Amino acid sequence: MRSFPFLALAAAGAALSAGSLTGCSSLQSSDNFLGVITPYRVEVVQGNVLTKEQVALVKPGLTRAQVRDVLGSPLLTDTFHANRWDYVFTIKRQGAEPQQRSVVVLFDGDKMASINAPELPSERDFVQSIDTFKTSRNAPPLALTEEQLKALPVPPKPPEPAASAPEGPIRSYPPLERS
Question: How much is the pTM?
Answer without folding.
Answer: 0.52
